[in-house]
Design a protein that fits this description.
Strand content of chain B: over 45%
Largest sheet of chain A: 6 strands, mixed
Oligomer: heterodimer
Structural class of chain B: mainly beta
Helix content of chain B: under 10%
Order of helices and strands of chain B: EEEEEEEEEEE
Largest sheet of chain B: 7 strands, mixed
Structural class of chain A: mainly beta
Shape of chain A: globular
Number of helices of chain A: 0
Shape of chain B: globular
Helix content of chain A: under 10%
Number of strands of chain A: 11
Number of strands of chain B: 11
Radius of gyration of chain A: 13 Å
């Protein structure tokens, strides 16, 4: 069975600082991995996805993530945080590599201090 | 707006009442998914359709829950005899066959009082 663990339910950074949100996965098959962002009372927006091509994936809003098979990790980073990045972030793995059937982590709330 | 549309956005209901939510996927998408998200948790898969066929249901989908997609376009999710534990955000997503990306609607927040 596949699963996702997000380390840290809450991360706080200063504006302009590095953002690092951690995600580890468990999968018996080569995984497809995703990061989604959710603003309060909104749906989920896809930030980026890994689908077995390049291990360093660039997404929207300056975010990127690196797939590390040896560490079973897919951490999300952004060099310089902006106030508008404050939101909930979810890492997900695709079961059977279907884009829509996803197993999500519990989420990490990102706060950005001025 | 050509995104995934959900209606209503908010629903407050009394325990024991039935509720129905609607999801309109992106028009060319043949796959449609329902998720439930409780406070402080990630979304959990409930069920999915390919065209009008319901191909999979999660164990989370008790017999009080039923979903339909009668013509392979919009879908409805009905909860009968609602319980307080049903209070959650219900999210719908759609994707096209073979795509690795799903698009989510803004969700329906259900509060059972």
């Amino acid at each position: 069975a596949q699963s996702v663990t997000q380390l840290g339910s809450h991360v706080s950074v200063s504006e302009g600082a590095l953002v690092l949100l951690r995600c580890n996965y468990s999968s018996s098959v080569p995984p497809y991995l995703f990061w989604y962002v959710q603003y309060p009372n909104q749906g989920l927006q896809l930030l980026l996805k890994y689908t077995s091509a390049a291990t360093l994936v660039k997404g929207i809003n300056g975010f990127e993530a690196e797939f590390k098979k040896s560490e079973t990790s897919f951490h999300l980073t952004k060099p310089s945080a902006h106030m508008s990045d404050a939101a909930e972030y979810f890492c997900a793995v695709s079961e059977n590599n279907q884009g829509g059937k996803l197993i999500f982590g519990q989420g990490t709330e990102l706060s950005v201090k001025p | 707006d050509t995104g995934v549309s959900q209606d209503p956005r908010h629903k407050i209901t009394k325990r024991g009442q039935n509720v129905t939510f609607r999801c309109d996927p992106i028009s060319e998408h043949n796959r449609l998914y329902w998720y439930r998200q409780t406070l402080g948790q990630g979304p959990e898969f409930l069920t999915y359709f390919q065209n009008e066929a319901q191909l999979e249901k999660s164990r989370l989908l008790s017999d009080r829950f039923s979903a339909e997609r009668p013509k392979g376009s919009f879908s409805t999710l009905e909860i009968q005899r609602t319980e307080q534990g049903d209070s959650a955000m219900y999210l719908c997503a759609s994707s096209s066959h073979g795509s690795t990306e799903a698009f989510f609607g803004q969700g329906t927040r259900l509060t059972v009082v």
